[in-house]
Amino acid sequence: MLIIDEIDTATNNPVFLDFLAQLRNGYIGRDTKGTPSFQSVILAGVTDIKNLKRKLRPDETHKFNSPWNIAADFTLDMSLSVNGIKGMLSSYENDHHTVMDVEAVAKEIYAFTNGYPFLVSRICQLIDTLLWDPLDPKKKNAWSIPGVSEAVRRILMAKNTLFDSLMGKVQDNEELRSILKRILFAGDSVSYNPDSISISDAEMYGLVRNDHGKVVIANRIFETRLYNFFLSARELQEFAI
Q1: In this structure, are 149 and 171 located in the same domain?
Q2: Distance between CA atoms of 224 and 163, rounded to whole angstroms?
Q3: Considering Cα of 216, then 186, then 112, then 173, what sign does the dihedral take?
Q4: What is the rounded CA–CA span in Å between residue 81 and residue 194?
Q5: Which of 63 and 1 is assigned the larger pLDDT?
Q6: pTM of the entire structure?
Q7: CA atoms of 147 and 96, how far apart (whole Å)
Q8: Which positions ≥6 away from 56 have C-beta within 8 Å?
């Protein structure tokens, strides 16, 4: 078995793609030609394997291509439910005895994150490491709804690799920017279209989701961050003028 991680960084590398082609040829000829081959090859990354790009001509024109002509659908929902968050908080409470209202805090975290794993973990990390102190009267009740709000405020004000990556995707995709602006500022109802590359990519990266056939921002934190991103860009443009 061969596992290749972080394939996103090599999807436009002709040497890497030629290597995949050799693996594929070996697999196809394993029975007829007796070619040595791996029984399984796993390509791990964020981008769908079908979106691997291959240089076909000197002018660097690309097309969608899967060197394997297969791609297993990943249907597992990775987001955390309220009960899932409650389970995490209950274990934490058993160890630290914060006297938090586990259900209320779990629901508040879910309301901001819609169960997005990184954001759930980040909120809990900030409360645990920066906001909660059982010996400080001002901090001993940080595991609460106001404590969650303060953690969210800090997330929105800070730089991190998640937001850098997501905002980079938005900045590089004019069609996606237009869709997000319509949803955020015009209140438009945008129909979910799985054949739209921009919508499909945004969903793949967790920025939007399909809500009964409509495109919606994945969670309140992303929504606020996008508001700030677009408003800041507009202010900078007006200042430049």
Answers
A1: no
A2: 12
A3: positive
A4: 25
A5: 1
A6: 0.72
A7: 16
A8: 62, 63
Chain-centre distance for alpha carbon 18: 29
* 152 shares a domain with 204: no
CA–CA distance, 214 with 190 (Å, rounded to integer): 6
Amino acid type, 183: I
Kindly report the CA angle at 164 between 155 and 142, in degrees rounded to 5? Answer: 10
Angle 41-44-45 from CA coordinates, rounded to 5°: 150
Other beta carbons within 10 Å of 43: 21
Q: For the chain, how many structural domains are there in total?
A: 3
Residue 64 shares a structural domain with residue 90:
no
165 and 220 inside one domain:
yes
**Within 10 A of 121 (CB to CB), how many other CB atoms are there?**
14
Question: 125: domain range?
Answer: 82-157
Give yes or no for a contact between 100 and 143, defined as CB atoms under 8 angstroms apart.
yes
Cβ–Cβ under 8 Å, residues 28 and 69:
no
Question: Token match 């237009």: residue?
Answer: 178
DSSP per-residue letters across 115-173: T-HHHHHHHHHHIIIII--TT-TTTTT-SSHHHHHHHHHHHHHS--HHHHHHHHHHHH-
Comparing 113-127, 135-149, 150-164, 225-239, the range with the smallest average pLDDT is: 225-239
